[in-house]
Amino acid sequence: MIRQHVVVALAVVALALAGCPDDEETTAEGGDETSGGEDTAGGGGGGTAGGGGGDGSWDGDPAGGGGTAGGGTTPGTTPGGAGDENPWGSPTAEQGRPLPPRRPMNGSARNAYQQGLSAAASGNAAAATSAFQQALSADSNAYQAAYNLGVMADRAGNAAQALEYYQRALRIQADYERAAEGIVTIHLRRGNTAEAISFIQPLARQWERNLHLQALLAETLVAANRPDEAWEAGRRALQRDERFVPAMIALVKASLKQGRQELAQRILDQALAVDQNNAELHYLKAKMLLDEEGRLRDAIVELRRAIELRPDYAEARMALGIQMMAGANYTEALSHFEVAASLAPTLVAVHLNLADAQRANKQWAAAKATFERALRMQSNLPEAHYDLALMYMSAGADFPGMTLLSSMQKAVEEFTTYRNMMGPRLPRDDPSEAYLENLNRQIEREQRRLEREAARAPREGAAPAAGGGG
């Protein structure tokens, strides 16, 4: 029996989980900038901000350091380019306080920063952290380096240090949307929705021309179950640039929260007409397809496309891994969960799914260690004890260092712990009761077998001696 663990914290592995290859921009105007998956309710481990793009810019900023963080299209055309009327309202792109200029890094900082991106892309966290620290030392205004140090700290499970680096990046660049995403993500992951809103709302109001901040506010409001306000925030961004995909994404999520599936689908289609290469749009499309009967194959295609576009998209990998587990493709499921665990190491649900996949692949010792890690992260996890019981029951004598009898006894112990922790929440038809009955019968048979063998052993050992005396 495979049990998929998708808890609220994971369903929104969030805002800071984007990442790009080190030769791509990460805040492409009008493109795939938002880095979360659904509802932005918190995740772990951010995505490193990409390096210079083809125009010589850094992290989405023009090479000269100025410009806005809004979309790169001219207001006045509808999403997808049809017509001249803005469906979201009158263009207001020139209203509001001008954004602070973004200065490029100096040469030595830029070189170190690129080395950090390359190291992070190859999975060398220590080298990446060292390179980003070198970049920040070489240029104290290298806000992207400060942000990426936050990402590395968050991926290492040090949220407090991550917050310090994100806040430092914001002190350097007051409207830096990626640092704001990182801070919001940590607040939401901790369940501090009010703190997340109290942080992002004034920042978005102060820098109203930064459309990424407006979209981030909208997503945070969705996470707080305030979809009507999220709609207002998203519309404000689209009034400035109606082709701004991150704001459309926020409105898709707000619509889904409101149960307005058809509206969500229309906005999603408009956004895909603007940017077919936005990983989050394909992920959202997959989620919607999974809710439709007979569309599983199409949903899997969309999930694969999302991962192709963004290999470090933890939510998409989790969703695809769950579908692979359900289809008994345990090897591929394991590969997706392993990547997700490296990107979101602080999320319990990630480790529960990883342990399930390790168990399904008969990696017994690894599964046990992963389950135990999840229980250290959160002790009140009855589902972990349930799955540990399944693991011992399946492994039997193959579990390292255990016999068939001791494995079955351990399974009974874990099922009993699970049932005690569930208490009145335990369903009447919970399968653990049938498992326990079967295990107890098997334990009795195994104990009788062992007793017979123990009784037979002295007789068999004595027979040669009796026949050979004299």
Describe this structure in words.
- The chain is mostly helical and 470 residues long.
- The protein has a domain at 12-102 and 173-313: Tetratricopeptide repeat domain (Serine Threonine Protein Phosphatase 5, Tetratricopeptide repeat, Alpha Horseshoe), CATH 1.25.40.
- It is 62% helix and 0% strand.
- Helix 6 runs parallel beside helix 8 and helix 16 (348-360) packs parallel to helix 18.
- The longest helix is centred in the C-terminal third of the chain and has 36 residues, at 432-467.
- The N and C termini lie far apart (62 Å).
Quaternary structure annotation: single chain
Task: List segments where confidence is low: pLDDT < 50 over at least 5 consecutive residues.
Answer: 6-45, 51-84
Instruction: Kindly estimate the percentage of residues that lie in beta strands according to DSSP.
Output: under 5%
CATH topology of the domain at 12-102 and 173-313: the name is Serine Threonine Protein Phosphatase 5, Tetratricopeptide repeat
CATH class of the domain at 12-102 and 173-313: Mainly Alpha
Secondary-structure element order, N to C: HHHHHHHHHHHHHHHHHHHH
CATH superfamily of the domain at 12-102 and 173-313: Tetratricopeptide repeat domain
Treating each run of at least 4 consecutive H or I residues as one helix, how many helices?
20
In CATH terms, what is the architecture of the domain at 12-102 and 173-313? Alpha Horseshoe
Content-based structural category: mainly alpha
Mean pLDDT across residues: 83
Distance between the termini: 62 Å
Largest sheet descriptor: none
Strand runs, count: 0
